[in-house]
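[job 0412] stage=complex_fold ligand=zinc ion status=START
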Amino acid sequence: MSKIIISPSILSADFANLECDIKRVEDAGADWIHVDVMDGHFVPNITIGVPVVKSIKKVTNLPLDVHLMIENPEKYIEPFAKAGADILTFHYEAVNDVSAIVDLIKSFGIKAGMSIKPKTSPDEILKYLEILDLFLVMTVEPGFGGQSFMEDCAEKIPTIKRHAPENLIIQVDGGINAQTAKICTSYGANSLVAGNYIYKSGNIISAVQSLR
Ligand code: DX5
Ligand code: ZN
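[job 0412] stage=complex_fold status=DONE, emitting structure tokens
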């Protein structure tokens, strides 16, 4: 079985102690750091931006998996790439020209990801899978950590997997814990984002390990 990529979401970390909270998931064996960027327009919440990504880059060697929940993501690809993002995932619902933004992301030598919200059908995006490095299936409405997993969203994964090139990373995000992780990996996901489950569990090491 191929390795599952664990990407803890720092949205659930203590922002006053971010370096320490990043080290804690690093020590627990996390593979990537998931950074949730929200603009108050595409989603009803505002989180962090380019300067924070730049600072995080200095304190970790793990790849920065940056999830852009923003309108007009094409405007911010260059600043986030230059700040140190290793994977930039935009939302299908926020762009007009998928190929152009994928080309733009890849022009910085980093991985391009695309995500869909719960109400978006996978059929709409199948034609883009071959140009992507990562596809993110949201298993909650984007905007907040700590929401409940929606299994009908995870049911999109087999369709995506059937149409995906072999090396496409299929990631899930929202309400992931040891039980829902199992559901997602059985459907074919190979990357798990988890915020609350990891940071609010009381035992980060066992939480990360239980997702594998
Ligand atoms: C939600 C974000 C998620 C969030 C997940 O819009 O994209 O990455 O942090 O948090 P949990 O794992 O708590 O659902
Ligand atoms: Zn996310």
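The chain has a mean pLDDT of 98.
[job 0412] exit 0
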